[in-house]
Amino acid sequence: xxxxxxxxxxxxxxxxxxxxxxxxxxxxxxxxxxxxxxxxxxxxxxxxxxxxxxxxxxxxxxxxxxxxxxxxxxxxxxxxxxxxxxxxxxxxxxxxxxxxxxxxxxxxxxxxxxxxxxxxxxxxxxxxxxxxxxxxxxxxxxxxxxxxxxxxxxxxxxxxxxxxxxxxxxxxxxxxxxxxxxxxxxxxxxxxxxxxxxxxxxxxxxxxxxxxxxxxxxxxxxxxxxxxxxxxxxxxxxx
Length: 239
Fold this sequence. Notes:
This protein is of the alpha+beta class and about 240 residues long. It has one domain: VTC, catalytic tunnel domain (mRNA Triphosphatase Cet1, Chain A, Alpha-Beta Barrel), CATH 3.20.100. It has an eight-stranded antiparallel barrel with strand order 1-6-5-4-3-7-8-10, surrounded by four helices. The chain is globular, with a radius of gyration of 17 Å.
């Protein structure tokens, strides 16, 4: 795999701090109850099933950025949401280009004409996924020339707001890759991770004081990427 030589300059004022903490998947129900007791539910999107298709180049240069712990990283993904109840809904899918500079991040996002109800069971080889990249290139013109759908990732997300610091908190669990592009990642899935993730946006270098009880559930600060971890799991089976 090769690594992109450079990334576009990003003004520091446009970047947002994002902290991640991992904990064993078995502790996720306890973490959800703890966060519900310490925080307010997100007023707009309290809970959903998140489905995401990640894009990469034929030589997996975006995955390499994560595995090599590059200071500059880029993710390109198509994302949609469905209800916890299982109702797929009729919401549109969003194309996102996410850039990280160390612990800071910038995310550009645009709505597409694609519907999550259709994408959920659409093969990754379908032309619809390629068309979404046309929108992605309007968000960032420096993306790799050849990108392909690499993997579908799905998990349950619960969102909160910590009232003292104002931090936005999300708990992701049931993280899995139900399918992947065999030409890029060898094993087509499914693969499931044994960890859950707490993401905290808009705070300093550590857990807000009110959320420190998460440490008693095994939460540990980590540089974590769902695409990176699932990609490694799939590559173990690559021919």
